[in-house]
Design brief:
Elements lengths: L2 H16 L2 H6 L2 E5 L3 E6 L6 E3 L4 E2 L1 H19 L7 E9 L9 E11 L2 E9 L8 E8 L2 H16 L4
Antiparallel strand pairs: 1-2, 2-6, 3-4, 5-8, 6-7, 7-8
């Protein structure tokens, strides 16, 4: 692991979830990040329940959690310089999350090369060996993501926002 990359990830960590209004609205939080792995948490909250009769979290919360964790792992795996876009995301749900429990997603960047990263992630509610869902994803750096970063940097340097 590169100490420089870990230092950059540590510096960017507060923005990796809080910089996304969708992740903020869901209450996602970053538990840990390293060049090879990201752990995020989705809280159990009443407003995120998908089935009032059972009290289980909505599947969309699990999807968003896995996508955000996998994207963050891809970002870290690609050197934390450009924001990647989701190319492909497959999620296999194995069971509903237990009512009352937070859900944890652990995502690992399996391979990154050039502009592409391949990631695997699991979501669980306490036992990683009994996952709620498993995801496989591919991400890429695109020309629009590079241009967006440049626009944000330019705005930050001028003290404005887009």
């Amino acid at each position: 692991m590169s100490d420089d990359l870990q230092a950059l990830l540590d510096e960017l960590a507060p923005l990796l979830v809080d910089g996304s209004p969708h992740a903020q609205a869901l209450g996602l939080s970053l538990v840990s990040i390293s060049p090879g792995e990201v752990v995020l948490k989705a809280p159990y909250r009443e407003d995120l329940i998908g089935d009032p009769e059972t009290g289980t979290l909505h599947g969309g919360v699990i999807t968003a959690l896995l996508d955000h964790a996998a994207g963050t792992a891809a970002f870290a795996g690609l050197g934390a310089k450009e924001a990647p876009a989701t190319l492909d995301l497959r999620i296999d749900y194995s069971r509903p999350a237990e009512p009352g429990k937070d859900v944890i997603a652990t995502a690992q960047c399996l391979k990154s090369h050039g502009l592409i990263a391949f990631v695997r992630a699991i979501a669980h509610d306490g036992d990683p060996d009994d996952p709620v869902a498993i995801a496989q994803a591919a991400f890429m750096i695109s020309k629009p993501s590079v241009e967006a970063r440049k626009r944000v940097q330019s705005d930050a340097n001028r003290g404005t926002s887009s």
